[in-house]
Every structure is written in C-alpha cells, then in structure tokens.
Amino acid sequence: MATSAPPEIIVPAKPSPTEVLARLFPGLRPPPSALAPARIPNNGPDAQAALLSALRDNHERSHVFFNQFSFHNHSAHHLLAVYALGAPGPVITAAYQDTHLDHQRIAFVAPHSVVITDENFTDHLGNDQNYNAYLDYFHRVVLQPGATISDLIEKYIFSDHYNIRTPKEGTQQPEMLNRFLEILLHPIIHVGYGAEFGLLGMIAEGLAWTAVHPAGATTLISRLLFTPERTTPLTELEKREPEWVPKSGARLRALNILSLMLRDPRFFGSRVLDKHEFAAMLESHGEIFNKYAEMWDCNIESQEDFEKYLEEIIFADMLMYGVGSWDGDGVEYRADFFTGHIVTSALFLPSLCAHISRRSQTLLLRAHFLTSITWWVVRGRPPFPLEEFTSTPLPPFSNSPSAKYPTTLPGPQPTPAPDALPSPNSPYAVVPNPWYPILANAIVHPNEHLCKFQRALAHFGSLYGHRQAGFVMESLSKDGVEVDPNYAYLDGSVFLRVAWLTSAALGWVVLGERNTGVWNYQEFEQKAIDDLEMLKAQGKA
Predict the structure, then answer these.
(1) List of residues 6+ apart from 157 with CB closer than 8 A
(2) Rounded Cα gap, residues 344 and 367, in angstroms
C-alpha cells in the first residue's frame, strides 16, 4: 500500500514554540489503571529527560511515514517501550539517534498550505501529505482549556459524528475508528501510548496519524459497528456457507470462533489468499469476517465484563501469533510480523479503555478482534498445536538437543554460590526468572519491534500467567459448538514460551548473538499455498 508521493517542493513544517512543546510533552503520568502495564525503574532522572528530549525532537522533525509505502515512524513507540522496561538515558538516546534518524522523512507543510478546521475536517482525510495540517489542528484541540484525554478519544474516535454522519457531510465519511485500526493497527498503538503515559503530544500525533490513514476496512468496522443494517446482496462466497456455521444471532467465545474459522473451507485456497492482499481479502471475504466477528459475545456493561473480554482477546491474540508461528521444536520459529502487531496493539487496550465509556470499550474490543482475525486469515490461518507446543520444557530447563532454539541461555553462565537457592546445581540459581534476560535483551536489541512485543507479553504474563491448563474448557463448552480438545492444553505459560522463542529467533544480542532481524513476512503465506495445492489434488479447486 503506497502513500502519496511527496510534494515537488518540500516546505519544512514550522517549529512549535518551546512553551507548546512543554505542554505537549510534560513529565510522564502513572499508568491509568491496574490493568495497564507497570513500569520498571530506570537508573535516575536522566532516563526521563532523554526520553522527553527525543519525543519533542521527533515531534518537530519527522513525518509520520518514513517512505512512500506507508512504513511508519516507530521512534516514539521504541523509546517509550524501552523507557518503561527500565532503560537508562544513554540507551534511550542511542535507540533514537542510531536506529531511527537516518531514514526519517522531514515534517513538511501540507500542499497549498491547507488548514484543517471543523468544517473541512473530512475533506483531507486519508492523505499523508496533510499530516502536519491535521497535527496543527489537533495541537489546537488538545491544548484547549479543559481538554481531557477521555473527551478527545471519545469524540474523535468513537462518536457517531466522527464515524458515519447522516446525512453525509463533506467529500467522505470520517470513519475514524476504522482508520484507528488501519495499516497494522499503528494509530491505536500511538494514541495508546498517549493514554498510558498522559502525553497530549502523543494524543495529538496519534489522532493526526489516524486522520491520514486510509479507511480500507469500510467493509468491516464501519459496516459492522456503525451501519449494521446491511444493504448489499449475499456474495457467492456467503452462499457457500457450511451448514455447521451457527446462524445469525449466535453468541460465542473468541476461541470457539477461531475454531470455526479454521474449519471453514471458504478460507481455503481462494484467489485472494493466493495474493495475500489485505484490501482484496476485505473486498471478497468482508461479510464473512463480519459474521464471525458479530458472533463474539462482547457487550461491556461493567468492569467485570471488561476484564472478562480483555482476557479472551489476549489469549486469542496469543494463539494467532504465538502458537500459530510454531511448527515444532526442530524448525525455525516463524515470528510473523503482521500477527505480531495484534499482540503489541492489545497492550494498549487497558490504557485506552481506562479513559472511555462502556459503549466505546465494546466498540474498541470488537473492532480489535475483527481486525485481528482478518490479519490471521490473510497470513495463512495457521492452526494451534497446543498439546505439542506446551510439552516443551520451560526455560531455564534444557529442551531436546535437536531443538532449533535451546531453552537455556547462550554463552558461559555464572557459577552460583554454595548457598544459592534452591540449590547451586539448580537452573533456577542461574536464571531464577527467565523474564529478566528476555527484557534485558529487548532493551538493547536494535530491532524496534522486539521491545514493544516483549513488554506486551511480560504484562500479559503478569495478568494471566497463573492460568492452569484447561481453564477455558468449561466456559467454551457452554457455547453449543464443538470445542477443540487442543484448548485443554492452553495455560498461562504461553506468554513465556512465545517470548522466549521470539527472543531466540531475533537473537540474544545482550548475550553476544547477532541481531537476525528475522520477523517473518512471507512464510505464513506458504500455509495458504499448501492448502490450495491440497484442494487441487483432491479435485476441489
């Protein structure tokens, strides 16, 4: 997906006054809820000073996309993640200067010096050349007296007026919730950081970012959540619905929905799967996704409801990325770049939902689930071999010598003292908590996605790591559909297992291994191609 070509004449954006930057990026606020991720202490005040200096510089210096192909500027995401993991000031500065500054586009004035107002807000949406025009607009909005993060997110992401207007006003519908989850869910991550750390500058950037994203998921989010009355006829694919698919109105748990989608032959070997283009998948399969997403029994009316549905979506995301990336201990772990983003974006659901109404919480979680299952199918809809996946020893105990990735750390290890607990010969005396080396590696690793990912998994492990195998079976059995027996092996160790595999796949840089940079971009596509060949051999394609 390409953004528009830059203007022939680049006019650098005008710097913000010092006092404005100070209001946009003041000191950091505490996490907004008990469900939001905790922060690991840094080594003193230099860390926050380095972070705020880099965030302000990035705000003034750089465009939201660093090229014409919708590749996002991840600077702020990287810096806030390593800060929250406890990075010292020099690491934060190096992360910014050494891994981001060499490839950013400068921030530039919108063509024709466009000025965004309430009246023309919809006229310039979806065009990245207008990013700084929308940023100027949201500067004015977030710095208005009395403006709150809650009010800003409610109005510009979840209100009917900024999604579907009846009658339509301007050249296009706003569809801001739709845009919020576009291009691998980056806007939700950016605004999520603002909600988590209390930074109005991140809120302004994130809302401007949302505004210049396309509204490609119109078939899905806007249609399902804001215009539920369908006006289009059934497609040929919909007419081929298997008889075992629950009828409209059925309400199921998220994991049972994934099981049904794994069985659905309409996701096998189609032309769109062969191309693996997200937009094409939405066009051909959009209403099928809508039906499955509509089955999810998510309606939040209380904090208890929110916590229940949040846990559902977190475990579903972990299966789609974490277990779906695994083909056995003896082969390379397919750390899929695309489904990995559904995990990192889910980290911000608690922080965002701490600021919004129950109605908006429902809309956000349903939109996130809908986007997640779409990316999972686009990337080949890999299954979840949980029995085999959970049979591997947990770090720091050794797995099979034939395994691609040892569950012990590389390189020489220290010798514990004779009185070390539980004994000097125990692996726990050397690595009492495998999360420590995982997070240390994430802090110094030059790949800007690894720190975000491992921070998310560590937080989810702190919330749900106590879950025993089989904990989901009773609730899944109440849905009236066949429950995949593999779910009996799902437990809270999934977060550590996936974090360890991902760290090993990208390299233990902190322990001397090279940065492999191996996020998987293509291999999930092989799953769909194999499906197609199988159907051809059976005479079904």
Answers:
(1) 176, 177, 180, 191, 207, 210, 360
(2) 15
* Strand, helix or coil for residue 296: strand
Pull the structure tokens for residue 448.
């800007």
A 10 A CB-CB count for 244 gives 10
3-class DSSP state for residue 106?
strand
> What type of residue is 95?
A
> b/e per residue, 245-279, with b = 16+ CB within 10 A?
bbeeebebbbbbbbbbbeebebbebbebbeebebe
Radius of gyration of the chain (CA): 23
Closest CA to 409 of 401, 420, 418, 398: 398
Q: What number of H helices and E strands is found in the chain?
A: 25, 0
DSSP structural state of residue 37: P
User: 483-500, pLDDT tens digit by residue?
Assistant: 999 999 999 999 999 999
Instruction: Copy the structure tokens of residue 317.
Output: 């995301």
- Are the beta carbons of 343 and 453 closer than 8 angstroms? yes
Query: Cis peptide before 422, with omega less than 30 degrees from 0?
Result: yes
Strands of 257-402, DSSP E: none
Rounded to whole angstroms, the Cα distance separating 348 from 235 reads 35
419: number of CA atoms within 13 Å, CB side? 0
Closest CA to 5 of 184, 128, 108: 128
Amino acid at 50: A
Q: Is 429 helix (H, G, I), strand (E, B) or coil?
A: helix
Cross-strand partners of 106: 62
In this structure, what are the phi and psi dihedrals at residue 146, rounded to the nearest 5 degrees?
A: 85, -5
Torsion angle of C-alpha atoms 527, 252, 374, 189, degrees rounded to 10: -120
- Adjacent-strand bridge partners of 296: 252
| Helices 448-464 and 75-84, packing angle to 10 deg | 40
User: Which tokens is 430 given?
Assistant: 């050397």
Among the residue ranges 38-42, 100-104, 234-238, 274-278, the one predicted with the least confidence is: 274-278
pLDDT at 535 over 80: no
Q: Provide mean pLDDT across the span 179-203.
A: 95
Angstrom distance (rounded) from CA 220 to CA 227: 10
* Cβ-based neighbour number of residue 526 at 10 Å: 12
The C-alpha atoms of residue 265 and residue 240 are separated, in whole angstroms, by: 9
The phi, psi pair for 106, rounded to 5°, reads -70, 150
Two tokens at 18? 């010092």
> Are 333 and 405 in contact, with CB atoms under 8 Å apart?
yes
Q: How many CA atoms, within 13 angstroms, populate the side-chain half-sphere of residue 346?
A: 31
